[in-house]
């Protein structure tokens, strides 16, 4: 007797996002709706393969006439996860979106569809011998992908062009016996599409997770290790007060694409600011076929229906620490073009979303836990950072190759000229914001710890580089570091917080590459470690917080 079929509805494709948000606020959760970004939304554990963990957008340092876009998926991959190693899901559509106009719509979409083949179903092994090339017969589960570019046209109907088929991914880093000379395999999986100045480079495969943060301490009532109590831990407790990178030793799956700026800018439009976000989508219906499906060739499961967006990510940490629990899963279903309508609506949902941005819970926690002063409940600076891009209201000094330069009030850092408010990462691609070119306003030595707040005009939140310490930068931004320069009002931000309000995990656990795809080599199943170098090699050091910073017991 065959097993009955079981149908799981991921999400009704006709459900209006606003109705879904209202349902979430009243406690109803649609069955099977999924979420994204380092397990930041309540239901993400059900589908890590659709979990978009990080998005990066930056001027390519070794090719400044191009932009590199990176979207990572599948959080916290254990390198030793055999025999069923992590890989892109053939049933997920992964996409990177670009708004080159400022209207919060995707005008260029790079779509990635994967296909996995099993060479020998009669073995449990991922590989039956050393994998020495991407054609190696000992690689039992090779994976390829199709890259499609969809471009919005004036008539509202997008054009679609397949840029590449059967593009190969590298295997996962099993170990030095199974995957010797791993970087040679990864390099072979870098594909160049086209030629000359118009060429695109693309890579999809396993890499070291480039995000770095002391997640354990941060979610323990916003503790910051390496600092003196009350914000750090006192000596003599069970846990160390030495900072630990919670992502150290873990891998992720990276989609990276390097595109000439001329191919990303709208034709006939001088707008230099690009809005970037990534998504993952699944078919609306999943059917578990049981043994009968396996025996009759249909497979263990079938996926039908239209694709439904289940994951969305632009600016880092937005859904993690800005969006409240009631809205997290719904946020992943929204398109940026829908943000403004919901944000400004006089509804329970709209009011909750506005409060989350203009009076974020994080600033209230900093005040309640550590008495850190803040500008109050009308955070138009955060609205600019997350929803519109930045335009200064007062003079602001940046560091350039020619020395400090004071930018006048009204300087447009990365706000589109006719912007529609929406959450996304924004990058200014104008020539002055390109490192290494004549007349560049980028800091000659990049300030990865403070980014734009530290006078580096080409640092986060103007785009996001792999090295940018977004945790420290966003903590300082919430504490009001950019308030005076982005609003008409003035706030006496205490500069002593710059050295104190930080998690002290300042860089990735592996060195980034100097060339595309830039993300570090993944950890192998035989040499990884989750312990942090700070914990194992350095003596314990307490930082005495400056007086009047709010972080010191007076």
Automatic annotation (TrEMBL):
Source organism superkingdom: Bacteria
Cited InterPro entries: DUF4331 (IPR025566)
Protein name (record): DUF4331 domain-containing protein
Organism: uncultured Chloroflexia bacterium
């Amino acid at each position: 007797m065959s097993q009955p079929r079981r149908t799981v509805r991921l999400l009704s494709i006709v459900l209006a996002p606003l109705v879904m948000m209202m349902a979430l606020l009243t406690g109803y959760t649609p069955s099977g709706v999924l979420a994204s970004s380092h397990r930041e939304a309540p239901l993400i554990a059900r589908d890590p393969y659709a979990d978009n963990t990080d998005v990066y957008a930056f001027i390519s340092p070794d090719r400044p006439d191009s932009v590199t876009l990176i979207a990572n998926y599948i959080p916290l991959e254990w390198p030793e996860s055999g025999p069923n190693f992590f890989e892109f899901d053939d049933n997920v559509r992964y996409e990177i979106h670009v708004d080159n106009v400022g209207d919060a719509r995707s005008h260029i979409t790079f779509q990635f569809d994967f296909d996995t083949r099993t060479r020998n179903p009669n073995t449990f092994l991922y590989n039956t011998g050393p994998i020495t090339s991407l054609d190696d017969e000992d690689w039992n589960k090779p994976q390829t992908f199709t890259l499609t570019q969809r471009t919005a046209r004036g008539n509202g109907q997008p054009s679609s062009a397949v840029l590449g088929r059967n593009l190969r991914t590298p295997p996962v880093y099993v170990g030095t016996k199974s995957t010797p000379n791993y970087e040679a395999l990864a390099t072979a999986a870098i594909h160049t599409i086209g030629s000359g100045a118009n060429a695109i480079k693309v890579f999809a495969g396993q890499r070291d997770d480039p995000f770095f943060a002391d997640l354990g301490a941060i979610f323990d009532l916003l503790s910051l290790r390496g600092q003196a109590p009350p914000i750090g831990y006192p000596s003599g407790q069970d846990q160390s007060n030495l900072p630990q990178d919670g992502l150290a030793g873990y891998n992720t799956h990276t989609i990276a694409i390097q595109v000439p700026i001329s191919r990303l800018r709208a034709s006939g439009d001088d707008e230099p600011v690009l809005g970037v976000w990534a998504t993952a989508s699944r078919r609306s219906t999943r059917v578990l076929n049981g043994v009968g499906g396996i025996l009759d060739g249909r497979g263990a499961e079938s996926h039908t229906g239209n694709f439904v967006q289940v994951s969305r990510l632009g600016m880092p940490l937005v859904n993690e620490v800005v969006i409240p629990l009631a809205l997290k899963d719904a946020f992943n279903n929204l398109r940026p073009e829908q943000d403004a309508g919901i944000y400004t609506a006089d509804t329970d949902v709209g009011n909750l979303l506005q409060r989350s941005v203009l009076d974020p819970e994080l600033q209230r926690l900093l005040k309640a836990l550590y008495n850190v002063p803040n500008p109050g409940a009308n955070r138009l600076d955060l609205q600019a950072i997350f929803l519109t891009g930045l335009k200064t209201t007062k003079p602001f000094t940046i560091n350039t190759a020619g020395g400090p330069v004071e930018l006048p009030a009204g300087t447009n850092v990365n706000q589109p000229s006719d912007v529609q408010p929406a959450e996304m990462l924004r990058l200014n691609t104008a020539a002055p914001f390109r490192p290494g070119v004549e007349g560049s306003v980028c800091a000659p030595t990049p300030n990865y710890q403070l980014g734009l707040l530290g006078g580096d005009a080409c640092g986060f939140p103007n785009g996001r580089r792999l090295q940018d310490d977004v945790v420290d930068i966003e903590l300082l931004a919430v504490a009001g570091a950019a308030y005076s320069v982005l609003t008409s009002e003035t706030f006496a931000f205490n500069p002593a917080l710059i050295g104190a309000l930080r998690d002290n995990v300042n860089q990735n656990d592996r060195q980034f590459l100097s060339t595309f795809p830039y993300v570090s080599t993944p950890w192998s199943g035989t040499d990884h470690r989750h312990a942090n170098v700070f914990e194992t090699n350095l003596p314990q050091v307490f930082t005495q917080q400056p007086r009047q910073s709010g972080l010191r017991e007076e």
